[in-house]
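Worked example 2:
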Amino acid sequence: MIIKILGVLDIIIGICFWVFGILGVGIQELILIMGLVLLVKGIIFIYGLSVISFLDIGVGLIILSSTSVEMPNLVVILVSLFLLQKGIFSLCG
């Protein structure tokens, strides 16, 4: 059950980050909180030595830095697609 909840969270964060990064629409504080959520989630699950946990930490740092630095569209698209596919796989599994 928790995997499905975290999968939905990944999908929501991916969509919000795409809208914020590409369209420039969104609240910076909300994006900051979402980046922190991913960072904390990655740190919590890092003890399993999963590659995905390390990627969550990296994606969280990218999202956090996007609030102060403008990210290239390619980075925004790749991060968003990663979060979307990870969320969809979590829901299917």
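The chain has one domain: 2-92. The CA atoms of residues 65 and 91 lie 28 Å apart.
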